[in-house]
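Bench notes, afternoon.
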Amino acid sequence: MKEKFKIIESQFRELGIEGDDVFTLIASEYIKYHNIEKSERLKKIGEKANSINCNGSKSKVEQILKKIISLEEQGSELSVFYQYFHSKRFRDNTGKFFTPRSIAQSMVSMLPIKSDAIIIDPTCGGGTFLLEALKKWGNTSCHLIGNDVDNYLVTLTELLLKIKKQSNHKLSFFNENIYSNNKIIAKYRGKVDYILANPPFSLTIENFNPKSKLLKLGFKNSDALFLDLAQDLLKEEGKLVCLLPHSIISNNEYVELRKTVESDWFINAIMVLPEGVFQETANTTTRADILVLKKKDKKNKQNKSNTLFCNISSIGNSINANNDLQAILEKQEVKKMLEIN
């Protein structure tokens, strides 16, 4: 995979085109190829592409772009292109890492399909979760909502979903800071069926909802406060499937956080992932776990639910092709526990 991207990088470099400009040209070509209806974000991609100096080699650039499209018409590798040509910009000082596709697929598979479900990824990054949700819902109607503080990532997500969408899929996109007062919370508070997310890890948050239980307990890190944000967005009995640092699940400093979670949520599953799950997508050994939570309804707040605890040894990648995570999710008792249809 890396070898292919190196060849493409080399071809553009020979023409004096590098970095952001390469991705912009590729994205613009996909917009034209699929004749996608252009939002203001997508229009800007085209405008930027037209302004790039091809150094008198426009025909050669067009040949490279047509070759890329011919190899993958549906743009499934657009997020990988973005990551390859923007990786440092994406990672540095943001606490963000792209979610490996195999993990995203498994996490989306934990959501029961229901008609007209509102599904949001408040930190959508490259759109991996929403793209997998779009595939799973197929002919079933749904409303997919993507948000990210990085407008370029919102643009990438919009492009990916518009290439794949069907007529019964409603799409909405935002460019908001979820930890400040914003339109998403105001518009969708208590209306969301499912949240899929890989929120930024361990960023210090100074400005957040003063009503937040976890903030009052002294937690000011982005991953912890994300749980209160999800509570605000979800309907009663709505589900959150997210990645969180392993430290939140295991370290003593988060005991009070875990007690608060147990009082407000049904804990459907805690899945401890192996070390190095972000190694290929972000070159980091940061450890993460999958948490599946169901928001309690007021009538049944005191009821208990069964919780799936498991240690995952492999996630299906180039290092280890076995996917223990997906194998566990295919067990009938696990499907019943997670209400998977």
